[in-house]
């Protein structure tokens, strides 16, 4: 009898694991997926640490979600069309004396979603990273509004060391003058 209970508990656990995996693949957070399965979120992490098949299932769920998000992003980047349907029902008794809805009107509105430039840029930067770089150029300007670093980019190590020594000497002289009150 005890073996039968163990089998029943195992079946329940597997059903809960499947519920978590399905929720995760549909975009739920771990907390939401655990709630759907009726478990504590710590149980999910216990399963990750102890069950190789569950760990593989979570990875598969993450990939399924990533594919789904990518599909939506591509669709949004390209723009799309869809039909919005508005139906109005009235309820009443039918010939079999059942309370049922009756379609009174139906309106179909064709809509267009314009291409989204931000989604296009996101895809370009992430799917064509060799061609589109998402970088920032930071320029440090001095008091004279001239770039402080560009003049040093083509210097050899020896020239650069010489310039650093000269700047260091000037800073030391400035400190001495400042401290002596002169």
Per-chain topology:
Elements: H1 2-25, H2 30-37, H3 41-50, H4 52-78, E1 80-93, E2 99-113, H5 117-127, H6 157-179
Antiparallel strand pairs: 1-2
Helix pairs in contact: 1-2, 1-4, 3-4, 4-5
Summarize the structure.
Helices cover 57% and strands 16% of the residues.
Instruction: Write down the overall geometry.
Output: elongated
Quaternary structure of the protein: single chain
In the predicted model, the low-confidence regions spanning at least 5 consecutive residues are: none
Derived structural class = alpha+beta
Number of strands: 2
Tell me the major beta sheet: 2 strands, antiparallel
Relative strand content: 15-25%
Count of helix runs: 6
The average pLDDT value, as a whole number, equals 87
Q: From the alpha carbons, calculate the radius of gyration and give it in angstroms.
A: 33 Å
Q: Helical percent range?
A: 55-70%
